[in-house]
Write a structure and sequence with these properties.
Number of strands: 11
Number of helices: 0
Order of helices and strands: EEEEEEEEEEE
Structural class: mainly beta
Radius of gyration: 13 Å
Helix content: under 10%
Oligomer: single chain
Largest sheet: 7 strands, mixed
Distance between the termini: 40 Å
Length: 111
């Protein structure tokens, strides 16, 4: 059974930082590209960042230079370091591995 469990969300003031983590189980982790997506209230889910099996990273334009995705294949985890957070970063953040999704973790940025 595939499980993706996100953690690290919370309330943070604008300009602050948070680090999200996703622990994966039930998959051969190092064979998967891993992604972070987010869904703000009333909006569609959107890509935030992806890291491939080889470590190549892709970011949404809105988070470039502020967010960093990383992975630890030994621990089967993928992380998202979020700096200089903005009010518009408020959303539920989801971990993704192909067709598999976590339940999400809420990030709220106060203005």
């Amino acid at each position: 059974q595939v499980r993706l469990v996100e953690s690290g969300g919370g309330l943070v003031p604008a300009g602050g930082s948070l680090r999200l983590s996703c622990a994966a189980s039930g998959i051969y982790f190092r064979a998967y590209s891993m992604g972070w997506y987010r869904q703000a209230p009333g909006k569609q889910r959107e890509l935030v960042a992806i890291i491939t099996t080889g470590g190549a990273r892709t970011y949404a334009e809105s988070v470039k230079g502020r967010f960093t995705i990383s992975r630890d294949n030994a621990k089967s985890t993928v992380s998202l370091q979020m700096n200089s957070l903005k009010f518009e970063d408020t959303a539920v953040y989801y971990c993704n591995a192909n067709e598999n999704w976590g339940k999400g973790t809420l990030v709220t940025v106060s203005s």
